């Protein structure tokens, strides 16, 4: 909506804000898995945050993180709840938008959010989950071409099936993202039996570690997995924290 700047007030307490949106369409690429792991890291850092789950069909994030709020994306004005939540939170996390990537990008343009964010003291990070296939790489390229350098970009290469992604590494999408300052990390493969345990019990890794059901070696596997993941997030905290 031309000329509209609905979110123009700076935070009265001078706090910085950050919006993190997992902006990829394809299902089953680890969007909710990433969000749950990020929530564990944010909790460790004591960040005051709110999470939204726009997926009414699967609701994976809400299953693993019950405080998450459902977000009905069928009407774009409902997305205004994201910004309204900054009244009581310093960081907002929106889980993967499923088949609604365009709805979120259209909403950002309709509200002129990316131009108003400086007035709000707001930083925006768009997260792209990449698998070794053309679909996720193509979607990442479309988002990068549309938004450009108006946001912080985080590329998460999900290596659950393969330890390399030549399609992404050799793509024009990657060139565009890197030209816009994108940061890259990798999401390693969790042992299949441990992943099945987490899924069956709807456990986060922290909840699994608090349980007496895991044997010592499986506990150590989860500790090592989390350590490697947290170390990567610590290196890019400038685009993840408020």
Polypeptide structure, described:
The structure is a single chain. The chain is of the alpha/beta class and 242 residues long. The chain has a single domain, classed as P-loop containing nucleotide triphosphate hydrolases (Rossmann fold), CATH 3.40.50.300. The chain is 43% helix and 16% strand. The protein has eleven helices and seven strands. A seven-stranded parallel sheet has the order 3-2-4-1-5-6-7, sandwiched between helices. Helix 2 links the parallel strand 2 and strand 3. The protein starts with 16 loop residues before the first strand and ends in a 7-residue tail after the last helix. 36% of the residues are buried. The N terminus is likely disordered.
Which labels suit this protein?
alpha/beta, Rossmann fold, 7-stranded parallel beta sheet, 11 helices, disordered N terminus
- Please state the structural category: alpha/beta
Find the CATH topology: Rossmann fold
* Percent range for β-strand residues: 15-25%
> Radius of gyration in whole Å, from Cα?
18 Å
- The SSE order reads EHEHEHEHHEHEHHEHHH
């Amino acid at each position: 909506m031309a000329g509209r700047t609905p979110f123009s007030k700076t935070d009265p307490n001078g706090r910085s804000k950050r919006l993190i949106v997992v902006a990829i369409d394809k299902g089953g690429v680890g969007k909710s898995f990433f969000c749950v792991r990020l929530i564990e890291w944010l909790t460790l850092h004591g960040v005051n945050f709110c999470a939204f789950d726009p997926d009414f069909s699967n609701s994976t994030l809400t299953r693993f993180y019950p405080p998450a709020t459902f977000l009905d994306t069928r009407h774009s004005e409902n997305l205004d709840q994201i910004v309204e939540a900054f009244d009581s939170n310093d960081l907002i996390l929106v889980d993967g938008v499923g088949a609604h990537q365009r709805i979120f990008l259209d909403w950002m343009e309709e509200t002129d959010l990316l131009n108003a964010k400086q007035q709000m003291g707001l930083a925006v990070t768009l997260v792209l989950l990449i698998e070794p296939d053309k679909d996720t790489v193509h979607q990442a390229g479309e988002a990068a071409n549309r938004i450009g350098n108006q946001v912080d970009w985080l590329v998460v290469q999900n290596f659950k099936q393969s330890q390399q992604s030549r399609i992404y590494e050799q793509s024009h999408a990657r060139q565009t993202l890197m030209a816009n300052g994108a940061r890259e990390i990798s999401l390693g493969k969790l042992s299949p039996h441990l992943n099945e345990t987490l899924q069956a019990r709807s456990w986060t890794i922290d909840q699994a570690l608090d349980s007496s059901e895991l044997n010592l070696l499986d506990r150590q596997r989860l500790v090592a997995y989390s350590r490697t993941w947290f170390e990567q997030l610590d290196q890019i905290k400038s685009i993840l924290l408020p």
